[in-house]
Amino acid sequence: MKPSEKTKTIIVVSGLPRSGTSMMMKMLAEGGLPILTDSIRGMDEDNPNGYFEFELVKQLADGNAKWLADANGRAVKIISQLLEYLPSEHKYKVIFMERDIKEILISQRKMLERRREGHQINDAEMEKQFGDHLGNVKFWLARQPNMEALYMNYNHLISIPSNSMIAIQDFIGIPLDIEKMKAVPTRDLYRNRASKD
Amino acid sequence: MRTVIVGFDSFDPAIFERLKNAGQTSNLSKFVDQGGYSHLEVCSPPQTEVSWTSIATGVDPGSHGIFDFVHRDPKTYGLYISLLPTKQTAMGEQYLPPYTTKTLFHEASEMGYPATALWWPALFPARPEIPVATIPGLGTPDIRGQLGVGTCLTTEFKEKKKTKVLRLEAVAKGKFSAILEGPNIKTKDGMRPATLPVTVEIVDDKSVNLIIGKQKIELVLGTWSSIIELQFPAGFAFSVHAITQVILTEIKDSVSLYFLPLQIHPLHSLWHYATPPSLVKDSWKKAGPFLTLGWPQDTNALEDGCISDQQFLSLCDSIFASRKRIFFNQLVNFHEGVLAGIFDCLDRVQHMFLRSSPEIVDEWYVKLDQFIGEVQSEIDKPGLEKYRFLVLSDHGFCTFDHKVHLNHWLMKNGYMMLMKQTENPDLRDVAWENTRAYALGLNSMYLNVANREGSGIVQPQEIESLLEEIKTKLLDWKTQDGRQIISRALLKHEAFNGPYTRLGPDLVIGYAPGFRASSETGLGKVASTPLESNLDHWGADHCIDAAKVPAVLFVNRDIRNMPGISFRDIPFLALGKHLDQSYVKPPSKTGSQGQKDLEERLKGLGYL
Predict the structure, then answer these.
(1) Residues of chain B that touch chain A, judged by Cβ-Cβ distance less than 8 Å
(2) Is the peptide bond before B45 cis (omega within 30 degrees of 0)?
(3) Across the interface, do B607 and A121 touch by the CB < 8 Å criterion?
């Protein structure tokens, strides 16, 4: 990326909740990429390294996107549901986290229980909804003139971090501290793996 | 921006993948290895002129208006070729552009880049008011304003199905003469063909001298002449220029020559053939003379037995070579903008040989793969800007062994009635007051709607139920051995979207593999049987259910995470912007019933 393009491009880390987005944000921060976060939601049992969120992201769907002016050249976490509300005047590089939906659902269920939130919809139905949603997002994202996407598989990130880090660095176009990034995905973060029959 | 688009008409994914797996397509396989290969969903119906137009515009026929190779005037039921609409003016009959919807080429020019489209269908007549350089492809007429009828001159007169046959009269030993008919011109006796005298002198048992007008050309048995330029006298100090090629096909027991259809001379065209004039002059001068007919590979001549398989294939080779020269002449000087070229010999070769000689077809796929390697070498030269490279087709292919006479089916099922039994009835013989549906074109069925058709009887409130009824019966229609004949029938609103939808067919007929509309159906004729075995040389086709003949797309970027690639995406892939992005719906607007469930879950997790 040319220096002028660096400052005009926003790095977005996206995916479904519990797909590894917080881990990716941590990796990018460790790698030296400036991060847009307000630390309002601090670390907890579900994310011992923190959430790396930015609260104003939740207002994207209501049309509040002025804060994006501060995001140029930085990474910000935006879940897949909100990508479509990103305004077209910016350019985005989206690192989209992918993870087995069953693993995601197990992790979400535990998080909902810890938050004492109910989960009315059963896993089978939710799996279908997420599958449809991800298909629609992928279709839409691939056709946005101002967005590029890199899909990162959570399991590959854990097991073959070097290749993934290099791919991320090439995608973003900025030199990153690969060694520090590699230290982030640890086995104790790999929770709630779906049990094998 | 620098984009090169190579179109391989009818390049089929199944044939490609088989050859790739056999290691025979090293250049195109590189795209696959880099994640740049996909099947390409094509529009309905998957006809060449329809599909390439949809690719160029990014919209379906409802938004560009080309629905089939034949359209009708609903008021008169009169048929016309969709690629050659005309209107009467003070100057006489004039050709109109078949469509005016904006193409990616036009968009590129509005972005400030040069754009060149070579042999793209439906670009005749040229539109000099739009700053896009074009040499038109399919739809370019011959010098008579038709889609191309050749002439056989022979001492052994025998009528052919399509080819015009003229007798070569012996005038002396080893010398014969005939009159070659050219374009129609106004004479005091009305419209008559302009003519040129032809003399054939036998030289030896393998060659003749052909004297035509003032030219003398030596012809060797079985070998095509180079392109011949002719001038047909058409009045005082006026002549009509034409080009053609000729081949000596018989010399022993009889003498026969075959002339390709007389074609527009690009440097002396009566119509706006190409634009700008400098493109044509430059191409003719540097790449050599080239044929201009939209369908220059003479399948009629092969079907009629005027030329042999080898002679047909030799013609295809020379046309491909000619187009390659013209294309590379443009490519070596191409530094920015869009350069596109369509190479359609494969389509003709597949029509004529996929069923009988598939190895010939395989050779062509390998030939096209080699061509891509040559193009890649040219555009990969160091120092040139990053580029987009797309290689794509407009549909796939499959064999067909049964012709479907759809109007006979309509008659048999009570939807059509004839005024009386005649030989070879067509739409002029239909009793419209007792007819509710009629078929024409290769994939089109229309209802005889009151106040739309000239003698329509179907009332608006009957349309929906009648269409459902016909559709159900068509999908139930099977051969005696249980094969489904029609695999899909799309209602108008299912196939089309846009301002021209009202002009399109009420049902788009998607034949199952193995079946295709008969040429009689194409012209609105009513045959005497519903099905007929296809024993023609033309043994394969693509004018069937679009889902059964997907196209291919190769592109020099990773498209593995771009699901559902279709013709709608091509302008975006070529230019980086959409011409019409109404098909790209934000995920929340896809009408998914699970939107509320998703939001509830995300709120529960604290993300919304």
Answers:
(1) 559, 561-564, 569, 572, 576-578, 581, 584-588, 590, 592, 594, 597-602, 604-608
(2) yes
(3) no
CA separation for the pair B306, B249 (Å, rounded): 8
pLDDT at A197: 35
pLDDT of residue B593: 67
Question: CB of A88 within 8 Å of any CB in chain B?
Answer: no
Residue A20 lies in a domain: yes
Nearest residue on chain B to A149, alpha-carbon basis: B561
**Distance from A94 to chain B by nearest Cα, in Å?**
13
User: Chain B contact for A42, CB < 8 A?
Assistant: no
Crossing angle of the two packed helices B26-33 and B13-21, in degrees rounded to 10: 100
SS3 label, residue B561: coil
In CATH, what number is assigned to the domain containing residue A56?
3.40.50.300
What ipTM was estimated for this complex? 0.90
Cis-peptide into B276, omega within 30 deg? yes
**Using 50, 70 and 90 to split pLDDT, how confident is the model at A196?**
very low
Q: How far is A176 from chain B (nearest CA, A)?
A: 23
What residues in chain B have per-residue pLDDT under 70? 384, 591-593
Residues of B whose CB is below 8 A from A123: none
Mutate to test the interface with A, among B598, B599, B600, B603 (most CBs of A within 10 A): B598
Give the integer Cα–Cα distance in Å for B388 and B380: 11
The model's pTM: 0.95
pLDDT tens for B359-393 read 999 999 999 999 999 999 999 887 767 899 999 99
Please tell me if residue A143 touches chain B, with a CB cutoff of 8 Å.
yes
Structural domain total, chain A: 1
The interaxial angle of helices B309-331 and B277-287, nearest 10 deg, is 120
**A25: pLDDT strictly greater than 80:** yes
Q: Which residues of B touch A140 (CB under 8 A)?
A: 584-587
Written as six digits, the tokens of B52 are 């390439």
pLDDT of residue A186: 63
User: Residue A119 corresponds to which tokens in the numbers above?
Assistant: 């989960």
At A80, give phi and psi (nearest 5°). Answer: -55, -35
Domain B1-64+99-140+294-397+549-608 has CATH 3.30.160.20: no
Query: Could you say which of B563, B581, B588 has the minimum Cβ distance to residue A138?
Result: B563
Q: Is residue A132 part of a domain?
A: yes
- Structure-block tokens of residue A138: 């992928």
Contacts of B471 (CB under 8 A, 6+ apart): B489, B491, B507
- For residue B253 the two structure tokens come to 């027991």
DSSP string, B10-21: T--HHHHHHHHH
Pick from A108, A121, A109, A14: nearest CA to A60: A14
Nearest-Cα distance to chain B for A112, in Å, is: 6
Q: CA of A114, closest CA in chain B: separation in Å? A: 10
- If you measure CA to CA, which chain A residue comes closest to B577? A145
Question: Are the beta carbons of A151 and A99 closer than 8 angstroms?
Answer: no
Q: Name every chain B residue with its beta carbon within 8 A of the beta carbon of A108.
A: 601, 605
Residue A104 domain-assigned?
A: yes
Q: Does A124 touch chain B (CB under 8 A)?
A: no
Q: pLDDT above 90 covers what percent of chain A?
A: 57
How many whole angstroms separate alpha carbon B463 and alpha carbon B473?
A: 15
Which sequence spans correspond to the domains of chain B?
1-64+99-140+294-397+549-608, 151-259, 401-544
Count of A–B CB contacts within 8 Å?
Answer: 90
pLDDT in tens, B466-516: 999 999 999 999 999 999 999 999 999 999 999 999 999 999 999 999 999
Taking the C-alpha atoms of residue B74 and residue B83, their distance in angstroms, rounded to an integer, is 18
Residue A49 lies in a domain: yes
